Sequence to fold (208 residues):
Amino acid sequence: MNRAALHDRLEHGVAALGLALPGDAVARLLDYQALLERWNGAYNLTAVRDPAEMVTRHLLDSLSILPYVRGATLADLGTGPGLPGIVLAIAAPGRQVLLVDSNGKKVRFLREAIRALKLEGVRAVQSRVEDVQGQFECVTARAFASLADMLGWGGHLLAPDGVWLAMKGKPAEDELPGIPTGFELRARHALHVPGLDAERHLLVLGRA
Fold:
């Protein structure tokens, strides 16, 4: 699929999600997708190989949580090749974003993407989540771990009035009893990702 077709697919998806993005966001998101596709051959960053599928499964899937993102600081845990962190940084610039992953190859890609895409206020760190310092008004995690592990390892990163956005496939009912003391489920949203025929849910957590 050529870039014009990918552009149409992404624009239609953004419209279906009801999002208003900055004027250059669609082009920059496709620049990111092209970079990911190019590096994927050597670095095996994602199992998704098809560019059109990347638009749906990576870009639109990440964009689907944009209405729930808030605050001036964001940490994306287990970000992999930058999902959803880089997508959110392009779609809603202006906040400080920390991308966290323990995989050296992925972090090398992230640093190249930050440089190539000129992403201001975005930095990548190679680290285990439990070793990261700081507090963030928004924490995102996409299919990263169980809620118990996620909050057990990274709960210290959530600011007192911050919001934790856990992206899941299934509703994750069985994980709710494992939410550690001091945290609570605030809301649950079924996400409808244009072109994706699979369940997607967002669990919104905060400090109890």
